Amino acid sequence: MKLTILSTSDVHGYWYPTNYSRRDDHEDYGFLKVATKIDQLKKQTKVDDWVITIENGDFIQGSPLTYFTAKKQAQWRFVYTQLTNAVGYDAGILGNHEFNYGMTYLQQCEANRKYPILAANLKQPTNVEVIDAPYKILQKNGLKVGILGLTTAYIPHWEQKQHIAGWQFESALKAAKKWVPVLRKQVDIVVVAYHGGFENDLETGKPSERMTGENEGYQLLSEVPGIDALITGHQHREIATICQGVPTTQPGEKGKYIGAIELNIDDKHQVKTQKAQLISVADVTPTEKFKTLTRDLQAKVEDWLDEPMGKVSGNMKITDPMAARLHGHPYLTFINQVQMAATQTDLSATALFNDEVLGYDETVTMRNIVNSYVYPNTLVVSEITGADLKAALLRCASFFTLDTSGQVTVSKKFQEPKRQYYNYDIYSGINYAFDLHKPESERLIALSYHGKPVRDDQKLEIALNQYRGIGGGDYPMFQANKIVREVQIDMTELISDYFVTHPVVQTTDEQNFRIKK
């Protein structure tokens, strides 16, 4: 028998082949392409072979469509499981972003499923009904397959407390050590589906990033015997390999690929050959079967995105992301202005999250706003010291490096194992300077606040997004215990509200920092 395990992960609400930058945009990804391809693969499978499908998390958050269902029209939330039911998944896993809009949203999006949500390392509160079991056992022609579900235990480090009240999170590794032996006694094949990734190089085993426990995939393979296939996600990496003898996949993001693991199994239920691959959906045309389920919602989203919110006097379009990071940009200054206005502070930091951020047209629409600010961040105000601020700026300065020709590029640690452009911040309310010729620990060569040098013991209040405010992105100088107040309103709403009170926004080129290169 050939057993094929197909998996999706980190779709983030990108169903149609569009990035929503324009109404007529067309990309080579999207969940409708994925669903169509899975349908095709199932129909091509021989009668005696077996295809198992797993949705590996981060499905209900991340796009303008998901924001629309979360914040604007809740009546559309049923479409999520209507769509996944139509695909015919055998199991689902919770991603960390499943928690971003709270329990009501999560439960409504997961209602009426025809497949179980598996989570062996999460415990839900008694008033929540999302997780069905730690594992699921499937059987065909006498072959028994067990699927163990795991989710990154790092969620409490990022998520708003009210969204995870009563939830308990255990190390995925610890849970796997408990449950894999239990499954091993009952089944022939053990599949671990983990919404998490790797902090080690898959070939050498050496740490590839700071070892926090956020991504325990390598440890699952090295410390838990008895796993026959490992499905991963969370990092948006594109992985298909045999790691430590175990076929392993991670299918990127936005429905670009399907993870596929093939196990050829003999009559004694032993694995004879194994293969891991990623199946591209770039050339797939979505079928009417899936478009029919989602067409009306998609049309509503596109109409909403075209609603005008305000105007910009000046230029807030981003045409060169690297130049924006090196010299600042009116769009980033504007985001800091919104943060400072919402928090009543005069010091703020924000990031150009990725190179797809386009900034704003002269007439600013919801499309501009949600495509440029892509995360469901709320704001915090942290009381920090001057020493904390200097440490954070040095972290920012390490974002850049000089290549052999003296050109400024992005440091390897912000690009591998995945791009982390969202972890470089640009500040408003201070003046500062970096010298990239100096060692990383000495690159901050100037820092002043209200025209005076910042002292190490000086107390400062700074507006940050909630992820950064609790130290996310390897900023340990920012911690939850330094937060003095919060603004529990999504940044997209804060930006929209700002245009209500400021119908015409004048661009500002702050020019408050310089980088010597």
Automatic annotation (TrEMBL):
This is 2,3-cyclic-nucleotide 2-phosphodiesterase. Residues 4-237 form the Calcineurin-like phosphoesterase domain. It comes from Pediococcus cellicola. InterPro entries: 5'-Nucleotdase_C, 5'-Nucleotdase_C_sf, 5'-Nucleotdase_CS, 5_nucleotidase/apyrase, Calcineurin-like_PHP, Metallo-depent_PP-like. One of its GO terms (molecular function) is nucleotide binding. Belongs to the 5'-nucleotidase family. Gene3D superfamilies: 3.60.21.10, 5'-Nucleotidase, C-terminal domain. Keywords: Hydrolase, Nucleotide-binding, Signal. GO terms for cellular component: outer membrane-bounded periplasmic space. Residues 325-479 form the 5'-Nucleotidase C-terminal domain. GO terms for biological process: nucleotide catabolic process.
